[in-house]
Amino acid sequence: MANKDAPPRWDRKMQQRLARGEAAALGELYDRFASLVHGLAHRVLGDERAADGVTREVFAHVWEHPDSYDPRQGPLRSWVAALTHRLAVQRLRATESAALALDGSDSTEELENKVRHASVAARADYIVQSMPTPLRAALELAYFQRRDYRQTAADLGVTEDEARRRLRLGLQLLSTAHDAAAPGAPPGRYGGAA
């Protein structure tokens, strides 16, 4: 039986390869996580060019500081997502603070609300992308195609009880997006919400 505390083998090997300075490892990591990084950054910032900049920052940070990832703390994917979230929120705060200083139209409270809403949306996107395919498929049918649990069960070829279970579990996972970004919420692995 595998040790539950042991990090995934790929994550450990990738961290070791990056620490040795293998450029091919960075390329492999980029191929695997670039769409996740860019998508999360874009969700927080709402701007393509800014998301491109955060994507470059994330992979530059990984290349320059590969030892800042600790495989015992969780999957590499989660660490990269948390790093992306942190850098995107920093950029959003800096951009919005600069705009606030120039025209004074937004208050600090409005800025924090923007950051909080962007954080919840980005975390929800990450949760949906990371959830098991059966849960994601059930949620997509129910939400995007407006199927009830009976129709979802028929479309997926599962029992109605199984469809309800998948929908319930998927929604429970999604509900954590708001909880983790709420003020005073305990941080998750690698810092949780910013």
From TrEMBL:
Residues spanning the membrane: none
Keywords, sorted A to Z: Sigma factor, Transcription, Transcription regulation
Sequence ranges assigned to domain RNA polymerase sigma-70 region in this UniProt record: 29-95
Domain RNA polymerase sigma factor 70 region 4 type: 127-173
Domain of life the protein comes from: Bacteria
Keyword Transcription regulation: yes
Keyword Transcription: yes
UniProt-listed SUPFAM superfamilies: Sigma2 domain of RNA polymerase sigma factors (SSF88946), Sigma3 and sigma4 domains of RNA polymerase sigma factors (SSF88659)
Family of this protein: Belongs to the sigma-70 factor family. ECF subfamily.
PANTHER family noted in UniProt: RNA POLYMERASE ECF-TYPE SIGMA FACTO (PTHR43133), RNA POLYMERASE SIGMA FACTOR SIGZ (PTHR43133:SF62)
Record's protein name: Sigma-70 family RNA polymerase sigma factor
Source species: Streptomyces bobili
